[in-house]
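Input record, target 12 of the design panel.
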């Protein structure tokens, strides 16, 4: 990892919204990150609304220099801690920050929501995210509800314990 090494999970603040918006540079990235219903191009108001900034709990990973390096959200869905809008700064990808983000959000979200499992959606063509989630212990599951874009993504679940940072799970 390098620049500003130490990475900690913090509450997202207003200063993070503009940075986050800058990471989603085109329609394809918006689809990968926000899913098929996220509007693009977006304005600050539509971005805030579509990612449910004011409704959902979340976290930002901040490096030792105070720079936001990753973002994600979580909420209760079907009795699980559901993770969403997971993203790592474009300049910091490939450094293990996605793994750290998922683990930190899962730990916080499962504790707050008293959930024993995590879930998430991933687009079928998002190979990098799919590989990360598989390495972390997520497996495909049937989603008990139908939704308009279900043919474009998979629903994955993992026991909260599989996502901890014990030596056997690195």
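The sequence produced for target 12 reads:
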């Amino acid at each position: 990892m390098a620049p500003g090494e130490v990475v900690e999970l913090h509450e997202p603040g207003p200063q993070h919204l503009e940075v986050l918006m800058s990471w989603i540079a085109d329609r394809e990235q918006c689809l990968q990150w926000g899913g098929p219903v996220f509007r693009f191009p977006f304005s600050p108001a539509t971005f805030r609304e579509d990612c449910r900034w004011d409704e959902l709990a979340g976290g930002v990973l901040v490096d030792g220099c105070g720079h936001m390096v990753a973002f994600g959200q979580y909420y209760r869905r079907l009795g699980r801690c559901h993770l969403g809008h997971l993203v790592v700064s474009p300049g910091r990808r490939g450094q293990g920050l996605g793994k750290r983000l998922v683990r930190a959000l899962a730990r916080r979200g499962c504790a707050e929501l008293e959930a024993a499992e995590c879930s998430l959606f991933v687009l079928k063509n998002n190979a990098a995210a799919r590989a990360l989630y598989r390495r972390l212990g997520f497996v495909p599951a049937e989603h008990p509800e139908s939704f308009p874009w279900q043919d474009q993504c998979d629903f994955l679940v993992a026991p909260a314990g599989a996502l901890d940072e014990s030596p056997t799970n690195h």
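Strands lie at 7-10, 57-63, 68-77, 80-88, 117-123, 139-141, 153-159.
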